[in-house]
Design brief:
three-stranded mixed β-sheet; 3 strands; alpha+beta; single chain
């Protein structure tokens, strides 16, 4: 059971939260900032004239937005 829970947590963090953060970074920066891919090992910096954000930062932004969504949802629910 621990293996299944660990796998599901990894899927949640690495796939879902990464994609939420990646989309949010692209939208809020109007495409000027990009997120590195999982296979890339680039630290924060610039590449091709665009700022590159590490995977962990995208996941952190995804977790923050996901949490804010549910906080607002339950706060506005009757």
């Amino acid at each position: 059971m621990d293996a299944v829970a660990g796998f599901m947590f990894n899927v949640l963090m690495e796939v879902i939260m990464y994609n939420i953060g990646r989309a949010a970074i692209a939208v809020f920066s109007f495409g000027r900032v990009r997120t590195e891919g999982f296979s890339e090992s680039v630290s924060a910096g610039t590449r091709d004239g665009r700022i590159v954000v590490p995977v962990m930062a995208a996941q952190l932004i995804g977790v923050t937005l996901f949490s804010l969504f549910w906080i607002v949802f339950f706060a506005l629910r009757k």
